[in-house]
Amino acid sequence: MKFNIISSMRKNRKKVIIGALIAVAVVVVGAISYYIYEHIYYVSTDDAKVTADLINVSPQIRGKLLQFDGDEGDTVVKDQILARQDMGSLPDSSIDQSLIRAPIDGIIVKKQANVGENLSPDKTIALLADPDNFYIITNIDETETRRLQVGQSVDISIDEYGAQKFTGKVKSIGHMSQSALTPSSYSDKGKYKKTVQKIPVKIKFDNSSNLKSKFTIGDNASVKIHVVNNK
């Protein structure tokens, strides 16, 4: 009787061990399959940021800044008066030259002047971003860029928006690596160290992507570029 109990315990233990090994094998095979699938169908990276082309707002004449109507984050329209300068010795007929206007419809992302400062035409008093032209700049390993093409679809995640997803298209693929303007790295012994270079890729948001006007320049992002069966 005792022998039968021991034998049964051994069989049960063996079944448990086999079951555990099968479960581990399923998990490992699943993980490997997922990795292979992701590698075949996508190029992914979290080395990406939200950015935009910035437009300078500058005065037309020299003079003291008397008024600046606008704060960072404000939306402005083209030709809206943002600031006013002291005209100095200019005639009243030249009053328009003392007015500083918005060159585009946009968002004030940076103020760089304060009331009371003496300004010259080469001084930037503010930077504007076009809310319809925010985009992603991501850095892709040079070994992966051969799989990329302009127009490929992209899934975008932005840290600021958590689980919310955005979509876009590959707009351009750089022809110069990030380190192209700096000397190649060498070891302490003076030997050349070959490293994988990063190529900048520009991704334009789809028009259907909402909240674009609320993006913050510099937001961290992750992208997944569809490289197979892409239309």
TrEMBL record:
<feature type="domain" description="Multidrug resistance protein MdtA-like barrel-sandwich hybrid">
    <location>
        <begin position="55"/>
        <end position="124"/>
    </location>
</feature>
<feature type="domain" description="YknX-like beta-barrel">
    <location>
        <begin position="136"/>
        <end position="215"/>
    </location>
</feature>
<keyword id="KW-0175">Coiled coil</keyword>
<dbReference type="Pfam" id="PF25917">
    <property type="entry name" value="BSH_RND"/>
</dbReference>
<feature type="transmembrane region" description="Helical">
    <location>
        <begin position="16"/>
        <end position="37"/>
    </location>
</feature>
<dbReference type="InterPro" id="IPR058636">
    <property type="entry name" value="Beta-barrel_YknX"/>
</dbReference>
<protein>
    <submittedName>
        <fullName>HlyD family secretion protein</fullName>
    </submittedName>
</protein>
<dbReference type="Pfam" id="PF25990">
    <property type="entry name" value="Beta-barrel_YknX"/>
</dbReference>
<dbReference type="InterPro" id="IPR050465">
    <property type="entry name" value="UPF0194_transport"/>
</dbReference>
<keyword id="KW-0812">Transmembrane</keyword>
<keyword id="KW-0472">Membrane</keyword>
<dbReference type="InterPro" id="IPR058625">
    <property type="entry name" value="MdtA-like_BSH"/>
</dbReference>
<keyword id="KW-1133">Transmembrane helix</keyword>
